[in-house]
Specification:
disordered N terminus; 272 residues; Beta Polymerase, domain 2; alpha+beta; 2 domains
């Protein structure tokens, strides 16, 4: 039955089991935010410090400036909580209307260290432009249901959608597949993700591998053997869920990548 499939642990995402509680009542008021320029400067300062070490860090670290920047970034992050809750509730209603069952919808605010790592890759002036500080996700039982939900979301939120990324059929170089859109809710950008069960399991495996080996595959950075393995795994999952035939060469390539990550010590064969 659509919607009864379960997905793995969502690291960083917390499923809201109290969706009947009006979200505005559960969220504390957020202080008046500084200007966009001040927000960006705070993000730039902290992300620059994150990349420094030794003499450079000592030279640029100022306790008062650091504390002020942390407050600005934390307050800006907190300002996404209420719009995120409202977006999650809306997504939950859309999924329920399409599946007729209790939806698997989760939400998270991006942690400050991950915000700073992303800013470090983006360059200066990026904090106020980030579209995924607040994000919610629906995990859907199959490709057909995902497409129905995607169309429903497009109709319902057509006036507030400001960006779309359709990685379902055109994955990233690492094999990530999902449907992403960004909406503007209460003057805050909120990211919405739609994934199939297989796509979620792939992402869960990335999270577990990062945690086990102290890596940042989730940010698209990691050992080549793991990148090749997860790219091939994503292709295999896509073939199964979307009925796309697998070529002999792609199967062989995946088997070779799987053997390599086992030999490199990242995984073990079943039974070992």
């Amino acid at each position: 039955m659509p919607g009864t499939a379960r997905h793995g642990k969502n690291a960083g995402y917390a499923t809201d089991h109290n969706s009947h509680i009006p979200y505005a009542q559960a969220v504390p008021s957020v202080p008046q935010l500084p200007s966009k320029n001040q927000i960006n400067k705070a993000g730039d300062y902290l992300s620059d410090l994150l990349a420094m070490s030794g003499v450079d860090f000592v030279k640029n670290y100022d306790p008062e400036k650091y504390a002020a920047a942390v407050r600005v970034v934390s307050d800006y992050r907190a300002a996404h909580q209420r719009p995120l809750g409202a977006t999650s509730q809306g997504l939950r209603q859309i999924v329920r209307s399409e599946t007729g069952v209790q939806p698997i919808v989760s939400q998270r605010l991006k942690r400050v260290p991950r915000i700073l790592r992303k800013l470090n890759r983006m360059g200066h002036g990026g904090l106020a432009r980030l579209e995924d500080i607040g994000g919610c996700r629906a995990v859907l039982p199959d490709a057909d249901v995902l497409e129905h939900v995607r169309e429903h979301v497009g109709r319902t939120w057509k006036d507030i959608i400001i960006a779309e990324r359709r990685n379902v059929h055109s994955p990233t170089s690492m094999g990530y597949r999902a449907y992403h859109l960004t909406i503007l809710k209460f003057d805050r950008k909120i990211e919405v993700q739609l994934r199939t069960v297989g796509q979620q399991r792939w992402a869960d495996s990335i999270e577990r591998t990062d945690s086990r080996h102290g890596l940042t595959l989730k940010d698209g950075v990691g050992p080549e053997s793991l990148m090749d393995y997860f790219s091939g795994a994503g292709e295999m999952i896509y073939s199964l869920e979307y009925g796309v035939p697998r070529s002999d060469s792609s199967i062989t390539k995946f088997r070779e990548a799987r053997e390599k990550v086992i030999n490199d010590g990242y995984f073990r064969r079943k039974g070992e």
